Amino acid sequence: MRSVTLFLSLFFSFLTAQAQVAQPMIEFSPTEISEHKSKIQLIIDTAAQCLDRTYADHTDFYDKYGFSKYFGNRNAIYQTRAQRFTAVRALPQVKGMNDQQVSTLVDQMRPTACITLAVQCLGKGFKEAGNEATWNKIFSHLNNRDPDHKFLGTDLVVDLQKLGWKIYYWNPDPSSNAKWDEEDRRLNPLKPGKSWNAVWGGHAPHFNNVIKRGTYMGIKVDDAKALVNFNRTQPSFFKQIPFFVGVAHAGYHVFPGYNGGVIEAHSKRKISARDNLEVSEFNPLGTSGGPRWTNIEKYRSGIMAIPPGY
Q1: What is the distance between the alpha carbons of residues 270 and 276, in angstroms, rounded to a whole number?
Q2: What is the tens place of the pLDDT at every residue in 164-176?
Q3: Which element (helix H / strand E) includes 302?
Q4: Alpha carbon of 102 to those of 95, 97, 234: distances in Å?
């Protein structure tokens, strides 16, 4: 176990160094930062309302037609309109519809993913507040990676931090880090030629870096205590946070939310799944809490961006 922990610590130190070298940087002027802070309430209120509307749109459509309007943008079977038409046409709940009716539904479908939901709703908030130029800089940064690393949650929270947002480290039970890391490796074995799996949480080495260096994947952590060791009881102050962007597993998963609740979108689930979008209380270890787990993806630590003034 000690050798595994040492390996992980060394490997994460390497990853952090690489991230710091490779990450394209953007900066904001004092005027941009001041303007953002002065309009933060409108930005986050609009973003939270967007999350609500998107989830309501999802459930209304699903309840009416029996499949999800929002399809995972990483699911290979939904990449083209023709593929989406084929997938919808095959659903038993549309059996009585003609092809034109099915086409009308297909044209209403929209791609989604965990970070897509956060980006879309934050973008609406910035635009509503007249902060669109600032948002365009963030969006360009997110889109400026190579194809395999576009729209990373870690990039998003770094940009928000530069605008005055605070980065909180979250981990409901650090004493379980080693056990969680062992489970991640067992459930998600490495593929040939790979040295790391994005699904792994790296809980122990991340926690060690936060405690010893005050960083998570090279990102400065502003608060390493408030969202740590809460186990299955959400800290009471967290319900007062009107909007946040959470990141798990070094940016692999992103979950926006507000007032203690999480709203998640998923990039690979089938359109027959009602939980393509789902809501829950921020409570990673709690029954039915979020961010939500799958049989192999267990989100149990990460960082979170909290808006200025909260």
Answers
A1: 7
A2: 999 999 999 999 9
A3: strand 302-306
A4: 9, 6, 43
